[in-house]
Fold:
Amino acid sequence: MTRTYSNRAWLLLIPALLVMGFVAALPLIAVFNYSFHDIFTLEQAFWIGPDWYREILSDPRFWGSLGRSALFSLIVLSVQVPLGIWLALLMLRMGRLAVPVLILLALPLVVPWNMIAGMWLTLINPEIGVLGKAMDASGIAFDYKFTALHTWILIVTVDTWHWLGLVVILSYAGLSAIPAPYRQAAAIDGASRLAVFRHIELPRIAGALSIVLLLRFVDSFMIYTEAFAINAGGPQDATTFVSLELGEDIKSFSYGRAAARAMLDFLIVLAVAWAFIRIRAGRSGTEGFGA
Structure:
């Protein structure tokens, strides 16, 4: 009996592609078009070519905010990924207690973004906040408004509290799927705990971690709500990220400049995502060839 194969199942993707085209492609094309205009109103848009791009790329303020955004993403990934993996490894020993712990860690993920900064600012308030009163009683001076280091610590802490659950959940799912005979064989061979993690557990969660790294980079690089609500880029632009500069352009009704800045931010994120995917695909191919 001869089997015939058909690719008509791809037609089922047409509705999704139409929706994506409407909500993603069309707005992107519109923003790209606006980036070449000086816009007063939608009816008064004057063509200026790539002038906005030249102005932004020659502005030291842009490169400073880009460096701060990259540094913030690096710090966030360096803190959240190892911490999430460590917590997931601890939860493997909890048995049935792992489920309620996972639920508790996942709760911050459903908190609205515009509430998170307010919650933490209330929490560290020395007059009404629990942490604020504790730090005040301990003699710890925490001045996030005028001390750049304290502002960075607060923003990183808030972001970690919000997103750590995602890292833990995906890591725990990957670790839980490892068959027990793998660890049993390693124990019989006398493998150390580090060797088990490096050669058994880490390769098994590499796929989930790659998703976490990409998602957390994109989200942390474009952080806005928390950073703006905490100190609006201060003190003295110490936490002014690329997304906050984009917000400033929009609020000043400089839509042409904002469109050009948005396109530059989009291209940076796209380039990093493309490089990450290419590196990941290259490693997967090498591992498959070696196997």
